[in-house]
Design goal:
The protein is an alpha/beta fold. The protein is built from 10 helices and 6 strands. Helices cover 43% and strands 13% of the residues. A 6-stranded parallel β-sheet has the order 3-2-1-4-5-6, sandwiched between helices.
C-alpha cells in the first residue's frame, strides 16, 4: 500500500526551469503594460513574495493579468523545447512513483501546449494527464480531479514551488510537498507550513511509501 494514490505536479519551477526565460519575457511585457521594471538584483527580494504581493509590487492592474499570462505563455512556447529540467532526476522519480502504482499528473498555470512540447522534447510523455489552471484557479481544478477520480483528500499529494501552491492545497484539504529549488525561497515557504519541504525529487519516493 502507498500513502498517496495521486501525485500532482506543478510545472514551472518544479519540473521545468523556466525562471530565466520568464524573466526575459517579463522585461518584454513590462514596457507594453507599463509594469515596474525589475532588475536581477531584485529577484532575491521578489522570490520571498506571494503571487498576490508580486502583482501589487510590479503595479499590475488585475484586469490585464489574463492578457499578460496568455502573451507570456505564447512567448515561452518559442523556447520551451530548450528549457532545462529543474532537477536532473525529477522525471526518473516520476517513473518510480508510477511503478509504485501511483498516478501522476501536472496541474499548472502554464499552457497545456507548452507542457506537452516540453515533455515531448524530454521524451517524457508518461503523465496520466495535464491540466491548465488560471493564476489562482488551482484549487478548483484540484477539487475537480478529486471528485472525478473519486479520491479521498488523504490520497492526493501536490508538489509545487510557490506559496500559492501551498494555499491551494491547504484550501482543498490535500497535503503538499513544497520544493526547495523553485521560485519562492525556502524561508518564505516554511512560513506557510507545507506538510513536506523537499530538496531532492527522490525524497518523494519515501514520502509516498
Amino acid at each position: 500500500m502507498v500513502r498517496y494514490k495521486y501525485v500532482l505536479f506543478d510545472f514551472d519551477g518544479t519540473i521545468a526551469d523556466t525562471e530565466e526565460a520568464n524573466f526575459v519575457i517579463y522585461q518584454k511585457l513590462a514596457e507594453k503594460y507599463n509594469l515596474r521594471n525589475i532588475t536581477i538584483d531584485e529577484l532575491g527580494h521578489i522570490k520571498k513574495m506571494s503571487a498576490k504581493e508580486l502583482i501589487e509590487y510590479v503595479e499590475l492592474k488585475k484586469r490585464y493579468l489574463p492578457f499578460i499570462l496568455k502573451r507570456g505563455k505564447k512567448l515561452l512556447n518559442q523556447d520551451i523545447k530548450n528549457i532545462r529540467l529543474c532537477k536532473g532526476d525529477i522525471l526518473e522519480t516520476v517513473k518510480i512513483l508510477r511503478e509504485m502504482g501511483i498516478k501522476t499528473a501536472i496541474l499548472t498555470t502554464n499552457s497545456k501546449d507548452n507542457v506537452l512540447s516540453f515533455l515531448k522534447a524530454k521524451d517524457a510523455e508518461f503523465f496520466d494527464f495535464i491540466l491548465s489552471a488560471s493564476m489562482f484557479g488551482k484549487e478548483s481544478k484540484m477539487r475537480r480531479i478529486i471528485k472525478k477520480e473519486k479520491l479521498n483528500l488523504s490520497e492526493v499529494l501536490y508538489v509545487g514551488d510557490e506559496i500559492r501552491d501551498i494555499h491551494a492545497a491547504k484550501n482543498t484539504g490535500i497535503d503538499i510537498a513544497s520544493v526547495g529549488w523553485g521560485y519562492n525561497t525556502v524561508e518564505s515557504l516554511k512560513k506557510h507550513k507545507p506538510e513536506y519541504l523537499i530538496f531532492e525529487p527522490s525524497e518523494l519516493i519515501d514520502i509516498c511509501k
